[in-house]
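Hi U.,

Before I forget, here's the chain from the pilot set. I'm dumping it here mostly so it's searchable later in email.
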Amino acid sequence: MHNIEITDKGTLELADGILRLRWRSGHAIGPEEAHGANAAIEALSQGRSLPLLVDVEGVTFTRPARKVPPSPSVSKIALLGSSPVDYVIALFVLRISPLPCPVAYFTSIRKAMSWLRRSSNRAKDN
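Structure:
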């Protein structure tokens, strides 16, 4: 497992062919953090296309952060939250910024990981 700290607001790790971005609850994610996450994704993916799990519980994303496109190394994104507020924020992010890869919202990490693993064997083979 490899970890990269993203400013003081989150971490990115790579385990079993899946990237996991964990934002710390209570923070507002701005463009600096979004660009930092993309740089970390590029560093860990090393040119491979990998699925990404993003913990969005208790965080907000500024409008400029929502305009930062995901790294081209991301094949699909599962957003993980636990509350109606997380769901509304996730829907807002998705509607404002159409993304170039499949994206889904989950409240269960098990379901999110299952969805990410489907068709992710291609990413592991690259």
